[in-house]
Amino acid sequence: MKDFFAGKVVWITGASSGIGEALVRAFASGGSRVIASSNDHGGLKRVAEECSAMKGSVTCVPFDLADTSGIREIVDMTARKEGRIDILLNIGGISQRALLIETPLSLDRRIMEINYFGTIAVTKAVLPHMIAGGGGQIAATSSITGRFGFPLRSAYSASKQALHGFFETLLIEHRKDNIRVSVLIPGRVQTAISLHALTSEGKEHGKMDDGQKGGVTAARAAEQIIRGLRRNKREILVGSRELLMLKIRKYLPSLFFRIAGRIKPM
Ligand SMILES: NC(=O)c1ccc[n+]([C@@H]2O[C@H](COP(=O)([O-])OP(=O)(O)OC[C@H]3O[C@@H](n4cnc5c(N)ncnc54)[C@H](OP(=O)(O)O)[C@@H]3O)[C@@H](O)[C@H]2O)c1
Fold this sequence. Notes:
The protein is of the alpha/beta class. The chain contains 10 helices and 9 strands. The protein is 46% helix and 15% strand. The structure holds NADP nicotinamide-adenine-dinucleotide phosphate (NAP). Residues 14-20, 38-40, 43, 64-66, 91-95, 114, 141, 143, 186, 188-189, 191-193, 196, 212, 215 line the site of NADP nicotinamide-adenine-dinucleotide phosphate (NAP).
């Protein structure tokens, strides 16, 4: 990465693994001051140490996206310490591998809590600091299944679709405050997402799905995201051929509903 974001304070959630981790490396090596968050203290420490070996600046701020009660305090404290927050990349999230008929409401709520409420809680806490600092850039991570329903992903898809409504509104309401907003729409990226996806019993799926194996690397995903952020794109597509499904859903919905149930969901 060139020095486009050098010196910026960039807060990244989901920073201990996959896409978030790749973004931490890219921003830290480009001279940004990175604040790295997830609920995995050990994972964050590993990423921060590896970045500091490359002279990158990474501060770890662990917290659980499922526990929104303490988020504002954590954000206020960190903003005071850092002096400002220029960019917030909401990357943290969890997936699902369960039929909707077998998914208990408690699991729907857990996925919504992490992917939707956790993300908006961080955003609402960071926003006043950005406005006070004269503006900033915020991204949230949806999915191609945030644009259409997909088998075994009812709660996941719903949580990601909800993000579009929130972040589009954020863009409209706060354009006047120089807040730039992007929604990231990944297709398939080779990460641990399917390993940690929740089954109907609330356990981890524990398998690397073929969809993940065949996806772009997390480093490639980070490149695509950074290019989109530089151009201030409202929607940033991340992935490869599977992104064609977005066009099929939009322009050929009958075809989409004929084929969606036949695509291997794992
Ligand atoms: N990989 C794909 O194909 C794909 C496709 C579409 C969308 N996405 C989205 O991309 C984002 C990044 O996922 P990934 O593929 O990089 O998966 P990943 O490797 O599993 O990373 C997920 C990150 O989110 C964090 N996280 C999960 N639950 C959390 C919680 N309760 N509190 C705090 N942090 C939490 C994880 O840290 P902990 O260890 O603390 O849980 C981890 O750092 C997610 O929002 C995902 O939905 C991914």
